Each structure stands twice: as structure tokens, then as C-alpha cells.
Amino acid sequence: MTAWAVGAVVACGGDGDSRTTGAWEPSSSDADATASVSATDSADADATASASASAESDGGKTASATDPTDPDSGTDTSPTSGPSTTGQEYDCATLGYTGVCEGDVLVWCEDDQIMMVDCAAQGEVCAYQNDDIGYNCLPAGGGGFGYPVGDTTTWPAGGWTVTQVLGHYLNFGSFVGGHLAQDIANGEAATANAPVYSVADGTVLYAGANASTYVNVVLVEHAHPDGGTICSFYGHLGSVTVGEGEAVTRGQQIATVLDWQAQFGDANSHLHYVLLSAELCAASDAANGALICGYDDTAGPNGIEDLDSEPFSYTSIGDVCGDHNYPEAFTSPSQFIDLHHF
Fold first, then answer.
1. Whether 229 and 93 share a structural domain
2. Is the separation of the CB atoms in 292 and 279 below 8 Å?
3. How high is the pLDDT of residue 160?
4. 21 beta partners
5. How many domains, in total, are found in the chain?
6. Which CATH number goes with the domain that contains 305?
7. pLDDT tens profile 45-58
8. Which residue ranges of the chain lie beneath pLDDT 70?
């Protein structure tokens, strides 16, 4: 790995087989079938489309025609408008029928046309369905685990990069020791303020401020596929969109990633997240989301450098939070989610 996003030093205190979506058709000037996921798409006079009969007949993705304009306000209310913040351009040669997820916006190519729909506007999430359909709008929740960002399904982090693995030794300023989570990012501009999703169905145990560079954290308890419980912990959060005691579903937004540059002055926005044992989770819950250190007291390089050398579970080598009292309390989210993916 060539770069590490540093984490916190913690103060211890569907089941269907076709796409049923709205579609976006490029204007006649878009001869190369290239589309930008931006607010300008909504201004296209011809931004409505229906799926081809062939797609409907072969059980593939289907799109319904939509009226992109609210007759009362003149504003775009169609689910065919993508987020204006991405500016991502697509072409059919790259997309193919498989498509991609741009957050919860599904984008794919059909009959040499770019098709687009906001899955969230339908109460669903954009995720990988199968090899025949590719990416699709699917119901949120429903069991299993997914990644907390991006398309929620692409290994190792929903299409984002794992910039620091669980257990990696770092010595950078005040961030020294073995890292007690994974850090994931997707470039500063795309990471800051990006939505963070619950990795599985569960119950929010804590959501709010933390007296560290985590700023805000969320702790969610989930049923462990092998019995008992396991918890997901998310740090370096900006806004938090859930509350304690709230039931959440896999793929439901729970927060946004902290804009590190706005908060601290340096471009280092990333999500710090990890899966915790039931015992450490209960201790953190009792301490209002505290007791989860960002680093332990590892004294030097330990051979953990990347995803290939990352352990499945990790025990803290001493820390001010007391996490070392809980054997194998930290679990690699990439590996666990890959094993139990929805």
C-alpha cells in the first residue's frame, strides 16, 4: 500500500429478476451515449424513456417511462436524476448491461442508451443482483451483510479503497500503534460527506458525539450469522441520521463521512469502521460509544501491511481504552462481510 489514511486516537470517555425503474435517455446531441450524473441532466427536454421490448421479454432490466417535471413547480421530481455532486460521466462501452452503482443511483446501458434511476427514490438500494442482471435496485435489508459505502457489494469496500487495514502498524504524528479498524476512502472530494450505510439489519446502540478525532460515531448491534451478536462501529462521521434504539436495515443510511479538511485542515477524509465482539460492544454501549481506541500500543512493524496479510480477527496489544482485555474483539470487516454477503 502506498498511502494510509490515519484514524483516531480515542479519548476513553429484491428477489425479482428484472429492473423496474425510471430511465434516463441522453438528448439527441449525445451521439456517443455519454451521460453525466449531474443536476444538468434534469434540464434535458427529452429526459424520459421506456425500456425496449426485448428487455421486457427476456426477463432483464425494465424501465418505465416517467414524467420528469412536476406540473405545479416545474422542478424535476423524477427518479431519473442523479446526484449533482458526482459529475461522473459514463459511456456504453464501459457500462455494458451490468451497469454500476453511483451511490444509490443505478446506471446501465441498454440499446446503446444510458439508463439511470435513483433507487433511493423508490425506497430501495443499488446493489449487485446476479451475473445475468448485474447491478439493480433491490430492497434494503433482508438479511446478510454489505459494505457501508459506495455500491455496498464490491469487495473489499463497496468500490472504495482500503487505505489502512486492521492491525497495521502506523507511526505518523500522534497516530502510533496497531490500527484497530479498517480505514476506507474514495478520494477526498468523493469521500467527504458521502453517505454511510448500515452493514446489516440491526439496532442502533449509540449514535452521536465522541471526544476524539472520531467526532461522531455510530454503534449498531446485529445478529451474528453463526449465532449470538456482532456489532459494527463507524467513526469519523459528520452528520448522524439515526438515533439510539432505532431499528435499521442493511443499506439504510446512518450517517455521512466527516469532511476532514473542513474539520481539521488537512485532506484526509475517510471512514474508520470495524466489527466488534459482543463483549466489547456491550462495554462500549455502556460507555455511550466510547472505549473503542483507534490504535493500540504495538511498538513497531508487525508484518500486517495490506489485505493479504490482514488477520481475520485481532487482539489489541495494550491500549488506554482497555480493549486489550477483550480477546479477538476486532474483526476485519472486509473478510467478514465477504463471508456473509447478502
1. no
2. no
3. 97
4. 63
5. 2
6. 2.70.70.10
7. 333 333 333 333 33
8. 1-88, 140-142
Q: Residue 119's closest CA among 144, 136, 98, 97?
A: 136
For the purposes of burial, counting CB atoms within 10 Å of the CB of 31, is it exposed (0-12), middle (13-18) or buried (19 or more)? exposed
Q: What phi, psi does 239 have (nearest 5°)?
A: -85, 150
User: Which pLDDT does position 61 carry in this prediction?
Assistant: 53
| Same domain? 98 vs 28 | yes
Helix, strand, coil percent values for the chain (each to nearest 5)? 15, 30, 55
Distance CA 136, CA 146 (A): 15
The CA distance from 78 to 47, in Å, is 9
Q: In this structure, which amino acid lies at residue 71?
A: P
Instruction: Provide the H-helix boundaries in 46-201.
Output: 53-57, 92-95, 188-191
Question: How far apart, in whole angstroms, are the C-alpha atoms of residue 254 and residue 234?
Answer: 10
* SS3 at position 295: strand
3-state secondary structure of 282: helix
Residue 71 covered by a domain: yes
Report phi then psi at 20, rounded to 5. -115, 95
